[in-house]
Amino acid sequence: MPPHIVRDIAGHSAIDVTMTIYAHVALDEKRAALTKLGDRLG
User: Fold this and answer.
1) What Gene3D superfamilies does UniProt report for this protein, alphabetically (predicted)?
2) Integer Cα distance of 42 and 37 in angstroms
3) What is the pLDDT of residues 19-40, one digit of tens each?
């Protein structure tokens, strides 16, 4: 989900707040994607 949409839904005034709270989700998704890529390449 794009951060600006999450910001609007959550009612945050600044994207910084949204990214601080929800950044871990993006990192987990990146790790999962890299693991899948590594499995396919490896």
Assistant:
1) Intergrase catalytic core
2) 8
3) 988 877 778 888 999 999 999 9
